């Protein structure tokens, strides 16, 4: 079957079995390899993308469920070829370490920032709770999201 949706603001059409994972379509068919596979079971959040603005694990979403929706991946965070505010904050605070969880953390952080919620440490930690990191202990990630929130409110 053919499924039509947008990815990072661009319309795409993909011919695939409806049960094929969105993760595989993004990486293999569309060449968007920023989204990583961690566990393949929806437990780690490494493959998190935004589906109509909501954080989802791309390893659990069949492509049939994204027909006529908007998908945003980590590649969609850059602005005119430059790092987005959140990406820049991750770079500056050391929030990115080995890189496996980083795309998913960025997408969860982006959804949190878009929500307009108070950027307290507790709220940020709750927002990224579905994403596991083995390297940073989360402190630098929380700092990065808080810094991005601060910069966005000042802009």
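^ structure tokens above, recovered residues below v
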């Amino acid at each position: 079957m053919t499924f039509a949706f947008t990815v990072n603001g661009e319309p795409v059409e993909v011919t695939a079995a409806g049960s094929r994972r969105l993760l595989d379509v993004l990486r293999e068919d569309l060449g968007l390899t920023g989204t990583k596979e961690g566990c393949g079971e929806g437990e780690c959040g490494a493959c998190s993308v935004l589906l109509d603005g909501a954080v989802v694990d791309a390893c659990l979403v069949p492509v049939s469920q994204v027909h006529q929706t908007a998908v945003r991946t980590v590649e969609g965070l850059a602005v005119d070829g430059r790092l987005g505010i959140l990406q820049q904050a991750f770079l500056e605070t050391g929030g990115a370490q080995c890189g496996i969880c980083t795309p998913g953390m960025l997408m969860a952080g982006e959804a949190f920032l878009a929500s307009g919620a108070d950027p307290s440490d507790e709220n940020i930690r709750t927002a990224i709770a579905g994403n596991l990191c083995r390297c940073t202990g989360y402190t630098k990630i929380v700092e990065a999201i808080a810094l991005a929130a601060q910069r966005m409110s000042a802009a």
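The first helix runs from residue 22 to 29.
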